[in-house]
Specification:
Keywords: Aminotransferase, Pyridoxal phosphate, Transferase. The chain has 281 residues and is α+β, with helices and mostly antiparallel strands. 31% of the residues lie in helices and 29% in strands. A hairpin with a 2-residue loop joins strand 3 (28-36) and strand 4. It binds 4'-deoxy-4'-aminopyridoxal-5'-phosphate.
């Protein structure tokens, strides 16, 4: 079951006109929310980021927070899986093709649920390989825009190289991954790039920094140079569906000894514990 403009229906029955500005211009924003045991994880934070993205593209939020919570709850109930990946998408609606905003047009609201596929224990144990590339995206990467062509091309570089993700560098500094945030460990300090216009403010990124603070790990939020990335003791990637994974190879070079490091081994169970505690509340 999916949700489209006020109605729940099977995905096969869902239709969007070809003049939808999402289709024509990529003029819209989205969210991906993990659902564990039928409970959306960090829902308020995702809805806050949605508002930030909508503000960023100057599109009025079609729903109040309470309405979103109710609609999302209903979609979760109408789907079978206990653990789901909820995709939510708002576009500027259907209008004659013209770049400028169309007046008086209702936005298109689409949501779907897919089974949540998290990382296997083997992947957590082995870590993943990534490749690096120049971050050639625009200067509003803080907006979770559906226009993802640069991210698509960047992620494909990883797939072509048999790697899991592409780590992005802009002007000699780390920004994030093609669809994830990146953390760096140096001298037992957990480093994270600042939440600015060059990266998506990850919900998982915030969870990791909160857990690190609670565990009294040393953290620093600051710009991280390419040299610091390439000589790191540990690299991690985070996202709502991948949670937290160790990066064990960068551009075919091992990160330290090529195995998940001690701080990762400390953080991974903290993340799982936190998730389980929140879900049981
Ligand atoms: N950066 C980008 C470019 C992403 O697409 C994602 C995943 N949607 C993230 C970071 C991680 O964000 P989150 O932890 O909220 O999933």
């Amino acid at each position: 079951m999916i949700y489209l403009n006020g109605q729940f229906m099977p995905i096969e029955e869902a239709r969007v006109p070809v003049l939808d500005r999402g289709f024509i211009f990529g003029d819209g924003v989205y969210e991906v929310i993990p659902v564990y045991s039928r409970r959306p994880f960090r829902l308020r934070e995702h809805l806050k980021r949605l508002q930030h993205s909508l503000d960023g593209i100057r599109l009025a939020n079609p729903h109040s927070e309470d309405e979103w919570v109710r609609l999302i709850g209903e979609l979760v109930e109408r789907n079978e899986e206990e653990d789901q990946s909820l995709y939510l998408h708002v576009t500027r609606g259907v209008a004659k093709r013209d770049h400028a905003f169309p007046p008086g047009v209702a936005p298109t609201v689409f949501m779907m649920s897919n089974p949540l596929v998290t990382s296997t224990p083997e992947l957590v144990e082995s870590g993943v390989a990534v490749v690096s590339a120049v971050d050639n995206r625009w200067l509003r990467c803080d907006i979770k825009a559906i226009a993802l062509l640069p991210n698509v091309l960047l992620r494909q570089l990883a797939v072509d190289a048999g790697a899991a993700e592409t780590l992005l560098l802009r002007d000699g500094f780390l920004t994030e991954g093609a669809a994830s945030n990146i953390f760096v460990v140096r001298d037992t300090v957990l480093l994270a790039p600042p939440k600015d216009n060059l990266m998506l403010p990850g919900i998982t990124y915030d969870v990791i920094l909160e857990l690190a603070a609670a565990a009294s790990l040393k953290t620093e939020v600051r710009r991280i140079s390419e040299h610091e990335v390439r000589t790191a003791q540990e690299l991690w990637l985070t996202s709502s569906t991948k949670e937290v994974l160790a990066i064990t190879h960068l551009d075919d070079q091992p990160v330290a000894d090529g195995r998940p490091g001690p701080l990762f081994r400390q953080m991974y169970p903290l993340y799982q514990d936190y998730k389980n505690t929140v879900m049981r509340k």
